[in-house]
Design brief:
alpha+beta; 2 domains; five-stranded antiparallel sheet; 12 strands; elongated
Length: 376
Amino acid sequence: MKEYLFNGDQKMEDLFYKKMLMTAPFGYAYHRIILDRNQNPVDYEFIEINEEFEKLTGLKAANILGKTVKTVLPDISDGEFDWIKHYGNVAINGERTEFEQYALPQDKWFSVQAYSSKKYFFSTIFIDITKRKQVENEKQQMQAELFHASKLATLGTLAAGVAHEINNPLAIIVGAVDIIEGRHENLEAQDLLKSTQMIRTAVDRISLIVKGLKTYARKDMENCIDVDAHAVINETLLFLRGVYKKENIEIKTKLDAPYFRICASKGKFQQVIVNLLNNAKDAFTNRRNGLIQIVTQTCDRYLVIEIIDNGVGIPADCLAKLFDPFFTTKAPGKGTGLGLSICQSIIESFGGEISVTSKTGTGSTFKIKLPIHQDK
């Protein structure tokens, strides 16, 4: 008797649960997985769907129940995501899963939950997140434009110094050409070779500076790749050192980290280095013999980069707000307050963190920690 009551209660509960799913405000579908002779999932059948599923996908129960997904949606396998294989793992192994995926046939983004309460069968719950994805994409585009605008603004402040850097090798070229033109009839082969070598060296120097500027100025790809952090730092200093030297600021490096490869966007990482160096440069207002040190070391699985200056330092009450958007300690008109906020966003997007310590009258240290890239 007790067993009969229990089974009856269970049946009522199942009916209630099924009714709840069929009238739910989210898309619901129940399927049977179809396997080939090697027990690999190759298709799945529509057994039940609710009204919300019809609204979300445009698929009507009368047209799809009892049919397979390949019959209903022949292009289901055209995208990069393998829906059948994914659902097959749920139906065969009983592994519940949740993911967000773009559905090519509907041109929509869905949040999907898939689970199985009976082998070879599975249920799916769909929620349309297309609008949310559109907002996220717009936000990413705006952020990318902001990052790029910040880069171009930095280039503007560097323009005079970079022009000075290019003028030096140009002067060497002009001098060597004057020697060749003025004495070409009496110029010995050895002297001619020396002059052409001077020209070649100067041209190479200009080429490297221009290449560095072009790399920095171009828009970045979002994808992170394997990056040699030491090489990026050295490339950046190639077109910055002379700018800082002109303002009596020396940049020293101690790149001792044995592991210095990171997973990052090269352009964005370079942007962080330039922003932090500019920040340090601004700390030398009314000071002579400024020194900026860039030090790297490996700590556990992280590359640690420290940018240390002996500038005026940052007041203690400003440290907690330093990475807030639009907060700046600079004089009006001399900073947007976005530089350090952008640095933090970039570093965190690489899976790292950035922090600062400072003492008024002594200087500041910005510390970046980034996961070391491990070859798989």
